[in-house]
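Posting for a labmate who doesn't have an account.
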Amino acid sequence: MNPIEKFFDSHRKHFEKGGRFERWYPFFESIESVFFAPARVTRNTPSVRDHLDVKRYMLLVIVALLPHYAFGVFNTGYQAHLASGLPIDLFSVVWTGLKYVVPIVVVTYAVGFMWETIFAVVRRHEISEGLFVTCALFPLTLPPTIPLWQVALGISFGIVIGKEIFGGTGRNFLNPALTGRAFLYFAYPVQISGDAVWTALLHGRQVPVDGFTGATPLSVSATVEKLGDVHNALLDSGYGFWKLLLGYYPGSIGGTTALLGIAGAAFLIILGIANYRIIFGCILGTLATGLLLNLVATESSMPFLSLNPFYHLIIGGSMFAYAYMATDPVSAAHMNGARWVFGFGCGVLTVLIRVFNPAFPEGVGLAVLFMNLFAPLLDHIETKFRLRKRIPNV
């Protein structure tokens, strides 16, 4: 017998009903489920209606996020070395990135696991698998320079206020990771926004070296003063198409790379984890809104209106949010028609928030959260519409 399996089998009796540590069974079960598939089928929401159980469903999402973490570690170190005028060699860059990213991930999981355990013990239910995905997504949305106490506060808010007070996973109507991220933005805007927070400076430097501005592509686009100059401004700042697609620029730890976001979306769609209607709806909403703003732009309009609609997809965390946040199995719409509307609304709001709210140039996080509020209504409308089309019983 596998020694790990033998260990859990020999200690399970102490945590099951009647054992000395019966109250702590959720904690024991959550650790065991990391190593072995569950013996029981899913009993509570979210329900997966195929061969996947919830644990394997969530595990595949985490697998899809691993390339984002690898990229985030490299890009964090890469931008830090550029800004500090240090040599760009692979080992040093990765080591620097690990020193910033790993503590954020450790704090997120430690605090998140603490809250999930407390609520599981009090309510006498198993620890939700959704915790692992929430804690995997949350660090990727943060700047590498964020104080660790704010990381702890943000994930606490996301799990407790965004999920647990509504009854836990399956009953929350907001994405917990985005809820925590939005809380940090509005509570501590200085540490969570602005060009300075996206790049770590090394060896005691207070300002970047000459030639390194640290401005993100979205902030560059939002500060252009003359209509039609937005693309030239991006090129002058070094943000060509391929750099934007690959994501090698200052930004959140894992959300800047549109290429990995597209690959992750394809991976989740092929495996049946994410619904393609939501993702394609997001893309269509983004392109349609961007094109409409291009058409109505005049010489007196905001220059941001002239940005190529396709650039809205590859700048910032658009594809990351569309692939992993908008497709959340709990907080997104569930009816097929409603999913198209839900995704389209996320894309529309992303562009509108970016263009008309210079204080919040990213926009996609708030857009998804706002549409989370309307997801139940969209499902209800489609349900009522379908019922009206049924032939009455006679």
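Reply:
Got it, the structure tokens are right above this. The radius of gyration is 22 Å.
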